[in-house]
Amino acid sequence: MPSRPRMTGSVHVIGAGLIGASIGMALQAQGVRVTLEDLSPTTAALARDLGAGSLPAPAAEAAGSVDIVVVATPPDVTSDVVVAAQRRFPAAIVTDVASVKGIIVDEVGVRGGDLARFVGGHPMAGRERSGAISARGDLFEGRAWVLTPTSETTSTALTAIRRLAESAGAAVVVLGADEHDEAVASVSHVPQIAASVVAARLEHLSDTSAALAGQGVRDVTRIAASDPGLWTQILVGNAPAVRRVLMEVIADLQDLQEALGAIARDGSHDLGAPGSRAVIAGRLAAGNAGHARIPGKHGSAPTAYGSVTVFVPDEPGQLGRLFNDVGAAGVNLEDLRLDHAQGQPFGLAEIFVVPGAVGHLTEALTERGWRLHG
Amino acid sequence: MPSRPRMTGSVHVIGAGLIGASIGMALQAQGVRVTLEDLSPTTAALARDLGAGSLPAPAAEAAGSVDIVVVATPPDVTSDVVVAAQRRFPAAIVTDVASVKGIIVDEVGVRGGDLARFVGGHPMAGRERSGAISARGDLFEGRAWVLTPTSETTSTALTAIRRLAESAGAAVVVLGADEHDEAVASVSHVPQIAASVVAARLEHLSDTSAALAGQGVRDVTRIAASDPGLWTQILVGNAPAVRRVLMEVIADLQDLQEALGAIARDGSHDLGAPGSRAVIAGRLAAGNAGHARIPGKHGSAPTAYGSVTVFVPDEPGQLGRLFNDVGAAGVNLEDLRLDHAQGQPFGLAEIFVVPGAVGHLTEALTERGWRLHG
Question: Which domains does chain A have, with CATH numbers?
Answer without folding.
Answer: 10-175 (3.40.50.720), 182-291 (1.10.3660.10), 306-367 (3.30.70.260)
